[in-house]
Amino acid sequence: MSIVSSVLCMPDELRPLLASRTPRGRLVPSLANVLTELRYSRLIVIGDRVTRAAFKLGLKPVLAIYDCVEMRENVECPEPPSHYRRETVFNPRSSVSFVAARVIRDVIRQGANTAIQVYGEEDLLAIPAILYADIGYVVAYGQPSRGVVLVWVDSYVKRLVANLLRSFEPCSSSSPGKTKE
């Protein structure tokens, strides 16, 4: 399955796998625990809490993706530094939209610090972030009640994530990511 479909939904059988595993990632209690390691990394952060922590610690992620929701509760949006470009995208729950993936791709290619506010859900946008990131980037995302997962992007991780995305399916009207029209 190609990422060019308008919206790809995660199949139900992948939910337990993605909820329990950190694909080739390292789980740390917080970004503060690895501040020295990340200070000069090309970094992408995903999730409100991780984004907020990165900005507070003075890290300058190339890309920050958040949806202003934590644990299904609305929260105040992270406030990017004033020099950050700001984008907004729609990405349905449990899915990866082509538009969101394309914006992520373009931001990474341009390399300008950018914050993307997602209407819907940002959780699975780590997939296109890893796919489009150059080798050597670090992608950080939250693992609820456990900490932060750090994924160092290499060719193996890119293949793993590409294979994962191939198992996604075009959303149908009964898919959780499909909105009612």
UniProtKB/TrEMBL annotation:
DNA repair listed as a keyword: no
Name of a matching Pfam family: DUF359
EC assignment: 2.7.1.237
Transmembrane helix found in the keyword field: no
Top-level taxon of origin: Archaea
Catalysed conversion reaction: 3'-dephospho-CoA + GTP = GDP + CoA + H(+)
Residues where GTP binds: D48, V50, D67, E122
Biological process (GO), any one: coenzyme A biosynthetic process
Keyword tags: Coenzyme A biosynthesis, GTP-binding, Kinase, Nucleotide-binding, Transferase
Pathway(s) of this molecule: Cofactor biosynthesis; coenzyme A biosynthesis
One Gene Ontology term of the molecular function aspect: GTP binding
Function: Catalyzes the GTP-dependent phosphorylation of the 3'-hydroxyl group of dephosphocoenzyme A to form coenzyme A (CoA).
HAMAP family: Dephospho_CoA_kinase_GTP_dep (MF_00590)
Sequence similarity: Belongs to the GTP-dependent DPCK family.
Protein name: GTP-dependent dephospho-CoA kinase
Source species: Pyrodictium delaneyi
